[in-house]
Design brief:
This protein has 128 residues and is of the alpha+beta class. It has one domain: Roll (Archaeosine Trna-guanine Transglycosylase, Chain: A, domain 4). It is 17% helix and 38% strand. Strands 2-5-4-3-1-6 form a 6-stranded mixed β-sheet. The longest helix is centred in the middle third of the chain and has 10 residues. The radius of gyration is 14 Å and the shape is globular. The mean pLDDT is 92.
């Protein structure tokens, strides 16, 4: 199955249902399920300043947290960025005119058992 490594707390924001879009500088044609892997890196400043009031659990790193369905990949325009900021300015405040794509994520499932795995860049494959 395809996997995408995402640094914490963003991986947990997805798995806990706070973040509906994952952003990349590249588009993808992939649609369907893929796994969310929490990388070893933690954005401690964002966690302390923007996400301190979110229920994110213990936020493990280096593990597969769960799976999602990628239903669409959209070019992020200023209009889309404004709409996302209205939904949750803490989660979607990072837009400063940079060129990116949003992966629309749905059907989030958090795994009870979270296998420890080393991550990779981009989409990569993992046998469950």
């Amino acid at each position: 199955m395809k996997v995408l490594t995402i640094k914490q707390p963003y991986a947990s924001l997805i798995i806990k249902g706070y973040k509906e879009y994952e952003f990349r500088t590249w588009a993808t044609k992939h649609r369907g399920e893929f796994l969310i892997h929490a990388g070893k890196t933690v954005d401690t400043q964002a966690l302390k300043n923007r996400f301190k009031n979110y229920d994110l659990g213990d936020m493990p790193t280096g593990v597969i947290l769960g799976k999602v369905t990628l239903s669409d990949c959209v070019k992020i325009t200023n209009e889309i960025a404004k709409e996302l900021k209205k939904k949750d300015n803490n989660v979607y405040c990072g837009f400063k005119g940079w060129d990116c794509y949003g992966f629309k994520l749905e059907n989030v499932v958090e795994f009870e058992e979270k296998p420890k795995v080393k991550g990779q860049l981009g989409f990569w494959n993992y046998e469950m």
